[in-house]
Structures are given as structure tokens and as C-alpha cells.
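Table S2 (text version). Query chain:
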Amino acid sequence: MRPLCWCRLALCLLPALGAPAHGQQPSAKQSSAKQSSARQATAKPPTTRPPDTIHSLDFRGAPAYAASALQQLSGLHPGEQITQKGLAAAADRLVNSGYFANVEAEFTGTAPALEVVFTLKPEDPAGFLRVSLENFVWWQPEELRRALTSRLPLYQGALPEAGPPQQALQDALQQLLQQRGIHATVVSELIAPYPGQPWRIAAFRMESPTMTLHSVTLHGDSAAFAAQLQQVTSDLLDKPYNEGITSASLQSRILQVYRAAGYQAATITRLERHVTATPPYQVDADVTLDEGTLYRVAAVHWAGSAVLSTQAFVTAAALHPGDIATQAAVSQATTVLDTAYRGQGYMDVSIDPVPTLDSARHTVTFDFAVQPGVQYHLHTFQCHGLSPEQQQELNATFPVRPGQIYDANAIDAYLKNDGARKSLTGMAATFQLAEDPEAGTLDLDMDFHKAPPPPAATTHAAPSPTPAH
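Corresponding C-alpha cell output:
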């Protein structure tokens, strides 16, 4: 079975001039469906038997899913005849959905009271992909969820990484658009966690015809934030419209203004979209805000782990009780944890600074929750564009060897250190990580080329010296 590969792309300048750390803010596209070899469907007894009429169906072990939805997915119905082969096929349909790690199916009783019993072991929904629906503006969010659930009976706003649900959701969105007479292309993208975005996300959008943001009208905003909100909304105009759950969405960009100032309770209470009748589509958005008030930090909790102790986190984090709860401080504290875990090979680490608001005291407590994910080791390392001399130096000085834990911090430091790889000074590199979560390994592929020259400095007449103040 092929696992899901998260491919991360980044650019590093050698020496790095403010280049981003290569483990952060990745965007990844699915290259293969993640499947677990441990998934199993079993129909008991394994011997053949003549057809019997189903009196009832019983689904056990999965209370989070409605029996009607499970019955729809199984393809079985009371009153129809079933054979042992049909029972096995129904169990296969359930386990191949991706929602269950194990399915056992058996007959109990005899005709005319024959019951089909399914014993289900669900996959942990904490590992599911959050779904971001970016520009399907012809439906209200709840209306769209119901329409999708009617086609995907187990869909609850998140998808398993394995099995067909991701393609099925993409197909369902395409069909809904076609029913409205919109001949569109729907695409999806997998987005890995990064500081400030703690989830693994499957983002779906209508790629063509295009849809852009034409105007934004704000209601409930105060003069104190007018200039910043004007800047944000102006930046979004004529860009692809996005109302999903990622940090690039219209709602997120607006609320970031308030989070940056410590207004942790700011919310968007209403979003109305008005879209043109014909493509290319343009959206006029009416956004109503509840700004709330300024919040200060009441407490910061990190239980500590073998990767980073509580004391080390408290020492490094710039988030302290009594401080204004700014997003910059929250992000810095998140990055402290993110950096520590990526340095130990946890490239899929998910960090969520869960806020608990005290609306009476206008304070917030942050409980940092970490899902480390898989610890990766370097499997293969390939590079291109180097001379034999440069390749030899890279092989001799590169800080991580195949078989070792993938230390993203050590690699970032190496790429920024002229002294560590003198023959590579002035080179730029793009690199790609292909992760195999089941094996716990990743392949690193680097492509080197000459860095572009820095922009020429503009010469001005030297000003007269003035005393420093």
C-alpha cells in the first residue's frame, strides 16, 4: 500500500538572506492515497450459505455515525436477499471508505428474523483532514454541508486521508455546480500544518471559471482599526475569492487585524456574498463584525515533553501572564514548540494554542496542545546543479546522513553558514521533501543554481552629518 506523501517546496539562498525555514508554512498536494495495510474487512462465517432475506441491520462500535448513513454506505437494505459473498462485499465497502480501520460482518438468527451485524472500529477522527471550501458561494455553509452529506453519508466536515472520500467530495462539488448550470473545474490541495495553522487541511476550490473579490463592505468596525482593515481588504481585491478555513481566507485576513492587537474575542457574525450572474465571477462581500475588547494573558500552559520541557518553553516563549494577548506573541510561542519538534524530525507536527476566554475579566488562557505526528529519518538525499568539487564538499559537510533523524534546524543553520560550505557561497537552492508516514522516512531533493545578484544600490548625494539623538 502506498502512503500519502507530503511534498514541501522551499527556496534557500546561500547565504540565506532572510530565507524562510524550510519546514514552515508548506503547501502540499496529494501524490498518492494514504492507505493502511492494517485495514481489514471480515465476513463471518467464511463458508458459503444459500441466500437469506435480511430482516434488520445492526451497526456496532461507531456511535458517531448515523445508522441510516452506515446502511446507505453498506448498500444493504432490510427485505432484500443476501449471500455470504454479498455480506463480504458490504464489509469491503465500509472498510474501503477510509472511515474504519476494521469491519467485521456476520449473520445472526435465522429467517425470517435474520439480522446482519457489523462490528466497526472507526479511524481516529483527530487524524482526519479538515475541509476548506473556498469559493462555492451559491450555497450558505450549512446548505452546502447538507448537500454534500446527501452524497457522502459519513461526511461531517472532515475527511480521512485514506480511501476515496477526497475524490468523492471533489466529484460531489462538481456535480452540484453542474446542477446549477455551472460548467466548472474543481480542484483540491492538501495543506500541511505550520505555525498559526495547526491542522492538516484538504482545500477545495472552483478553479475555472475564475472567481475574484470585487468589493468588501464592513459593518461594526471602529475607527481605531479603519486604516488596517482598509489595507487588508484592498490587498484582497481582484484576487481569487476565498472564504475557507485557511489563513488566506477573507475572514481570517480580517480577524488577523484584531488578533494582532489582542482582541481575541473578535468575530465575524455575518458574511453575505453577492456574485455576478455570468463568468468570470466577481464577489461583493458584506461583512459584519463584533470587535469585542482587548484581552490580556491570564496563563500559559505547556505540560512539557521529552522534546521540550516546560521550563525551556517558558524561558523561550514571549507570552507571559499580564501581557496583551497579541497574535505575534502567540505565534512566537508556537514557533518555539514547532522549531523544537522539527529539530527532532517531527515534520508533520501540529501545534494548537487553544484559547479559553474569560469574558468577565477580559483575559485568555492558552493551553498548548501538540500532536507530534511521525518522527522522520532521512531516507535518500539527492542534489543537482553542483560541480564535482561542490558535490564533494556538500557530501562531507551536510549535517544529516541517510538513516539519521531529519533535523530541519541543523539543515537550516547549515544553509545559512558560509563557513560550513565555502564552495556553495552565492548559490541558491530549491528543495523538495517527499514524506512516507508509514515508513517514517523522507527523501530530500535539492536543486542548486546561481543566486540572482542583489538589486543595485541607488546613489544619492551624501547628506550633511547631523548629531545623533
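Notes on Table S2: The radius of gyration is 27 Å. The longest helix spans residues 327-342.
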